[in-house]
Every structure is written in structure tokens, then in C-alpha cells.
Design brief:
This protein has 162 residues and is mainly alpha-helical. It is built from six helices and two strands; from the N terminus they run ααααββαα. The chain has a single domain (3-153), classed as dinb family like domain (Four Helix Bundle (Hemerythrin (Met), subunit A), Up-down Bundle). The protein has a two-stranded antiparallel sheet. β1 (99-106) and β2 (109-113) form a beta hairpin.
């Protein structure tokens, strides 16, 4: 995956994550739903973990209970996307091709490129946004359209976290 495509994928992901947060906040009770809460935390933790792997930083796992509120978790999600954007802006092609090990795959271990690690995070988050969209609809809410083509059609807007 080339640098420009990977950067665009993460810009889309930030926008899509923000759209989901806003839709969940707009539906009374959605952020009280245990499945939604756990998935939002899992998405945040996974995105941050793969970003840490890409940057060569240690991963510090969290639990949902480590956050005082869902607003605090949302703040961390936004911060992670800002860090990812800064990393991608300053990272060259050579770094994206460097190999990293994903620590939770042990037998056998897996070594992938930095670009593949960031690609995995985006694909994984997409999967869980879809689960939360389904759950939001079950709760009577309206999930946002977050397909990348909708983002392109809208002019590739920046994420609106508020």
C-alpha cells in the first residue's frame, strides 16, 4: 500500500469514527448500551495499539473502566486519530516498509510491514463500526453512511467530533 492511499484510508477512518460517535451521542441511551460501549473501547484500543506498533512505542492496554466517561473515551479516540495523522504526515516510504511484530500473535508470531499494521487497524475498525451501526438501528437510531465513497462524494471532509 502506498503512502498516499494509506494516509487517505486513515483520514477516512477518522471521519467515519467521528460520524459514528456523533450518531451514537444523538440517540438517547445508545452510549449506555454495553455492547456499543465495549466495541467503542475496543476500536479505540485497537487503533492505538496498531499505531503504537507502527511507531515502535510500547502498548499500554486499557479497560473501559479506566475512562471516567464515554466523553473521555471519545477524547482519546480523537487524540489517537490526530497522532496517526501526524505520524503519517512525517513518515516516509521506507518506514512504512519496515517490519514489525504484532505481539498478541505468538504461535506462530506474525511480522508485517508498518503499512500493513495501519491497514489492519483501519479494516478492523470498519468491521466494528458496522456492528455498532446495526446495534444503533436496533435501538431506534439512524446509523450514519460512512462508506468511503460517501466521504469522497462529500469532498473528503475532516472529522467533526463535536
Amino acid at each position: 500500500m502506498d503512502h498516499a492511499t494509506l494516509s487517505e484510508l486513515w483520514r477516512h477512518q477518522a471521519w467515519a469514527d467521528a460520524e459514528h460517535w456523533r450518531a451514537l451521542e444523538a440517540r438517547d441511551g445508545a452510549l449506555d448500551d454495553p455492547a456499543i460501549r465495549e466495541r467503542l473501547h475496543h476500536v479505540q484500543l485497537t487503533e492505538l495499539a496498531f499505531l503504537c506498533i507502527a511507531q515502535g512505542f510500547p502498548i499500554v492496554p486499557t479497560r473501559l473502566t479506566d475512562y471516567a466517561s464515554m466523553s473521555a473515551l471519545k477524547h482519546e479516540a480523537r487524540r489517537t486519530h490526530e497522532e496517526a495523522a501526524a505520524f503519517l504526515e512525517t513518515t516516509g516510504r521506507a518506514r512504512l516498509q519496515e517490519r514489525v511484530t504484532v505481539p498478541w500473535f505468538r504461535d506462530p508470531p506474525i511480522t508485517i510491514s508498518v503499512a500493513e499494521a495501519l491497514w489492519q487497524a483501519a479494516m478492523h475498525s470498519h468491521y466494528h463500526r458496522a456492528q455498532n451501526a446495526t446495534r444503533l438501528r436496533e435501538l431506534g437510531g439512524e446509523p450514519p453512511l460512512t462508506d468511503i465513497i460517501v466521504w469522497w462524494w462529500g469532498g473528503r471532509p475532516a472529522p467533526r467530533w463535536e
